[in-house]
C-alpha cells in the first residue's frame, strides 16, 4: 500500500473522519498526521480510491476534501523534480500541446514558500519537456501539477479530466457550527488516554487522587478528571481545560514539594512529559513513593529517536529494576503513540 489520498476535515474531527473512511469498501489504512484536520490514506492506487469515495459520498459527512496522491517523495526540490519528471513521462501522450499550472500547498516550516516551488517546477517542466509544446495558463489550464507538502514528505499528482481534487461543499457548510453541539473531539494525547481507558478499565476504577506529570495542555487531565475525585496536574505550561477537580500545580515536577503541594495518598500516577527517558522515569519514581500499594503508573517513554528506542527502553527498565516495589505490568504501543513512544504500565506492590 502507498499514500493515495490526503483527506481533510474540520480540525479536531479527525477521529470521526477516520471512522467513516474505515467503513468504505476498499482495502486501506488511515494515518494520523501532525497537521490538524489532515489524514493520509494508504491503499493500492489513487484512482480506485477516488472512485470509491465518490460512490460513498453520502456516508462521509466529515470529509471536506480529498486530494488524490500519485507519488510520494522527500521534501527536497531535486526529489520533487524527479517525481514530476516521472509522472509527466508516464502520461506524456495525453499531455501534448496542453496548458498547465503548478500548484503547491505547503504545511510545516521550510526555507522556501509555495510560490517558490510553483515557479521552480513550472520552469523545470517548460525546460525539460519542450517536445510536448506545453504552455502555462494559471486560469484555464488543461492539467494541474499538484504538490502537497507535509513537512518532510511531498506528494505529487497530475490532475486531468476527472482525476482531480474532490470537495464536498455541503459537509463544509454543515460542520461549520458543529462544535456548538458536540464536545470538542480528542487531540493525540487524549487519544492515548482514551485507548488506555478502553483497554485497561480496571486501572481507572475508584480513583480518589491522580497525579498527572507534564499535564499541559490538559488532554489527559481532562479525561482523568472524569474518573477521579481529584487530579493534580503538574506543568509549568498553561492548562486549556478547566474542571473543579483539576488542581494545577504550576511548577516543574522536580520542584514539587509533595508534603506542601499534594500531601495525600496517590491512587494513580500518569506521566507524559517530553523529557529524556531517564529524566522522565526519575520524575515518575519521585512520586511513586507516595503511590498506594496496588496503584498503577502510566508512563510514556519518549525515545530520543527511533534508533535509540530499544536502548532507551533498556535504560529505563534497568532503572526500574532497582525499585523492587515497582513491577512492570505491561509495555504497550498505543495507536496514538508516535513512532518514538512506548507506554509503560507499572504497578506498585
Ligand atoms: C506532550 S505534553 C503532555 C500532554 C498532556 N499529556 C495532554 O494530554 O495534554 C508534555 C508536557 O510535559 C511538560 N514538561 C516537560 N518537562 C517537565 C517537567 N520537568 N515537569 C513538569 N512538566 C514538564 C511540558 O511543559 C509539556 O506541557
Automatic annotation (TrEMBL):
Span of domain THUMP: 51-160
Q: Which Gene3D superfamilies match?
A: 3.30.2130.30, Vaccinia Virus protein VP39 (3.40.50.150)
The record ties this protein, via SUPFAM superfamilies, to: S-adenosyl-L-methionine-dependent methyltransferases, THUMP domain-like
Q: Which domain of life is it from?
A: Archaea
Q: What keywords sit in the KW lines? A: RNA-binding
One GO cellular component assignment for this chain's record is:
cytosol
Q: Which GO terms describe its biological process?
A: methylation; thiazole biosynthetic process; tRNA 4-thiouridine biosynthesis
Q: Could you state a single Gene Ontology molecular function term?
A: methyltransferase activity
InterPro entries annotated for this entry? RNA_MeTrfase_FtsJ_dom, SAM-dependent_MTases_sf, THUMP_dom, tRNA_sulfurtransferase_ThiI
Quote the PANTHER family the UniProt record gives. TRNA SULFURTRANSFERASE
Official protein name in the record: THUMP domain protein
Species the sequence originates in: Methanocaldococcus fervens (strain DSM 4213 / JCM 15782 / AG86)
